[in-house]
Specification:
Layout: H1 3-18, E1 54-58, H2 69-85, E2 95-97, H3 108-118, E3 123-126, H4 130-142, E4 146-149, E5 166-168, H5 173-186, E6 191-197, H6 200-215, E7 219-226, H7 234-243, E8 247-251, H8 256-265, E9 275-277, E10 299-303, H9 309-318, H10 328-345, H11 350-361, E11 367-369, H12 372-380, E12 386-388, E13 405-415, E14 418-421, E15 427-430
Parallel strand pairs: 1-2, 1-3, 3-4, 4-5, 6-7, 6-8, 8-9, 9-10, 11-12
Antiparallel strand pairs: 10-13, 13-14, 13-15
Helix pairs in contact: 1-5, 1-6, 2-9, 2-10, 3-4, 5-6, 10-11, 10-12
Length: about 425
């Protein structure tokens, strides 16, 4: 499948896809009595900039997406280090409050948010899971704090009533679902089974994928939703087998390993029926213990450009143990954009950051730049708008806080524990909007 063919197909599917879903003023200062002769010349009061910028992370150290935590934390830490190395935001170093998101089976995310808000965070980066973000978005945004996810893809978050304070560097699944559907169709498959976890992410992506595949001329022969916390998945896999699909799209998190084991047991594993994975289960470690080489050839989609060797080396300078770089670039970009918005707005408060994120992302034009230091130089030179070109691809926020332009990668497994990008499959396109 050629890149140009896929891009044209995605454009044609757009309509089908979108129908889904105080530094200066925080301290009291004693005023000494002076005579008129001693009094200094009158000057304006010092402006309060609400700095330093405090960014709290809400990323998975535990739970069903814990495998995504290391690259996301590395992306945040890399950006914070580079920003502080370039002089910080408004002359002060950025502070990073580390926090775990857990998953939707726990209350960890809510506790972390409470801690970050109490510590004065003006922006919170996370969660990875759309479902987790939906449990805390009201708490974050009602506090006037920016909620910025590097990995949420649920379409539900596009039009969520967030007071203009929610942003993300990962595109909504109106984009990923369209790419996935066309990938399966272009691979020659006409009968599709979709098996997805029952949450906002799984249901949203499944709906887009099914609608887009049907629009491409295919038939969805099975659409099965499952409880990700179930002890076993024999009944669901039996339904897949009975539908006799010639391709299966599996949308899940770490429970995907159990599902694949059951599919192999029932004769509908990747060795018998082509299986396609998504960003939630595209893992370099989860399937290592499956039968030898059974994952070879399995394809998956992942938002964002592939991490360059240069970026990987910088990330490994933060965490030498990294082997998976999923959403590291999006996390890096999120922190840089937050910092640049505060720099442009002249304040670190959440509302100022939100008000200036479009202007630093390229939505309003401006010269291109790709890191904090070069972008800050443009702002220091008087620019009122810049075009931050991220490591994850173009951003250019739209009115919903979603990236208006995004990149989607297609990958293929070369071993059970290794997947590589199919470079010609990468596409950059406008993200469908409601």
């Amino acid at each position: 499948m050629r890149r140009t063919r896929l891009m044209a197909s995605i454009a044609a599917l757009g309509a089908a896809s979108v129908v889904l879903a105080a530094c200066g003023g925080g301290t009291d200062t004693a005023v000494e009595e002076t005579t008129a002769a001693e009094a200094p010349a009158e000057e304006a009061p010092a402006a309060t900039d609400n700095c330093p910028l405090i960014i709290g992370t809400l990323l998975p150290q535990t739970g069903s997406l814990a495998f995504l935590g290391p690259p996301e934390f590395a992306g945040v830490d890399l950006a914070v280090g580079e920003i502080n190395g370039a002089g910080g935001v408004l002359g002060q170093e950025v502070q990073h409050l580390v926090g775990d998101s857990g998953d939707t089976t726990t209350d960890i995310a809510s506790q972390t948010v409470d801690s970050h808000l109490a510590a004065g965070a003006q922006a919170i980066v996370g969660a990875a899971s759309s479902g987790v973000s939906l449990t805390v978005i009201d708490k974050i945004t009602s506090a006037g704090v920016v909620h910025f996810s590097p990995a949420n893809t649920s379409p539900e978050l596009t039009t969520y009533d967030d007071g203009g304070l929610y942003f993300r560097t990962a595109p909504p699944d109106t984009f990923q679902g369209a790419v996935m559907a066309q990938l399966v169709a272009n691979d020659g498959h006409t009968k599709l089974a979709v098996l997805n976890l029952d949450d906002s992410y799984g249901n949203g992506l499944a709906t887009v994928t099914k609608d887009a595949f049907t629009a491409a001329g295919g038939e969805v022969v099975a659409a099965i939703t499952y409880d990700p916390n179930a002890a076993e998945f024999a009944a669901e896999v039996t339904q897949v087998k009975a539908a006799a699909p010639n391709a299966v799209v599996l949308i899940g998190f770490d429970e995907t390993t159990k599902i694949l084991q059951e599919m192999i047991k029932q004769g509908v594993g990747p060795d018998a029926v082509p299986v396609y994975l998504v960003d939630g289960n595209l893992s370099g470690s989860a399937y290592a213990e499956l039968p030898a080489d059974i994952m070879v050839g399995v394809k998956g989609t992942l938002p964002g450009a592939a991490a360059t060797t240069e970026l990987q080396d910088r990330l490994k300078g933060v965490n030498a143990d990294l082997t998976d770089f999923s959403y590291a670039a999006e996390s890096y970009d999120a922190v840089n954009l937050i910092a640049l918005a505060a720099q442009l707005g002249g304040s670190c408060d959440g509302q100022t950051i939100a008000d200036n994120l479009l202007a630093v992302s390229g939505t309003d034009g401006g010269d291109a730049c790709s890191d904090f230091a070069s972008c800050k130089a443009l702002l220091d030179g008087g620019a009122t708008a810049i075009d931050y070109e991220g490591q994850s691809g173009p951003v250019n926020f739209n009115q919903y806080g979603d990236p208006g332009v995004a990149t989607m990668g297609v990958y293929a497994y070369t071993a059970n524990d290794k997947y590589e990008p199919l470079l010609e499959e990468f596409i950059t396109a406008d993200v469908p909007q409601p």
